[in-house]
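Table S7 (text form). Paired inputs.
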Amino acid sequence: MADSIRFTDGQGDPDTASAARMAPCGILGYTAARPFDESHARATVAAAGFRFDESGLIPCIVQQEGTGEVLMMAWMNEESIVLTLTTRTTWFWSRSRQELWNKGTTSGNVQALRELRYDCDEDCLLAIVDSSGPACHTGARSCFYRTLG
């Protein structure tokens, strides 16, 4: 099945959806060179077994492909993960506005998704992206431009 859902164990080895929960960490991916359709995206999210907080949210760290630069951290819910997988651009949940937002819709600084990974505890995501511009609302490339101490 050339376009079936594929999980890897973080080392690049394909895994089955049922075994994905047993892997120490994972990558949500696909084998076809096209976005997930909605039903595959929903099945992928369900099979991953994410541990959302009491508000139904999970933190997502966003990292620039190639450089590894940490660009930002934002919150995702199940719907924003599905939208991210189906559109291949990052979608987040705004806690202040209580709505979904697609990064770059207003600013033009779109984040094209390359990989969506999750950690060993299934309670944090890592979006590896190609960012077309600054990630921070201040205009800085990264939201992590300040140092403490």
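Next pair, protein 2 of 2.
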Amino acid sequence: MTGQTLKTEKELICRPIGYIRTPFASAGETPKAGVVKPEVEGCIELFAEYAEAAASMKVGKRYVVLFWFHEAKGYAQTVHWRGYGALMGLFSTRSPHRPNPIGLSTITVTGIEPPKAEQADEPMRIWFTGVDMIDGTPVLDIKSTDVNEENRQP
């Protein structure tokens, strides 16, 4: 590190790899954490072009989903914890209202439905519990929670 402050004005571009389907139509009815309603199941409709990237995902395994809080508008640098608690710095909370409204949730896969060969543009469906997103949420990435995964040979 050179001790210089880095400040760039570069724009970052993210494109969804799919969308999340849930029974929650609004932020008000959505649990603030996936453990609040563990019985609720959601589905990631992963674009068919990424099906190969999900080929090694397994039912029963946990994954981190990175997504875009697409309905969040604006942000404040201090917010009330969980919307009603003590005032805290934004980066010490899980508020959806952020400079870059990226969310992350840990899910458990309950089912995997690959795209049908005869319907090449149909999405792959990944069913999961740990739902704390609203219906239609864009998915940015999916990552394994297994820290040893990268060191393991197939």
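The domain at 18-145 is CATH 2.40.30.70 (Elongation Factor Tu (Ef-tu); domain 3).
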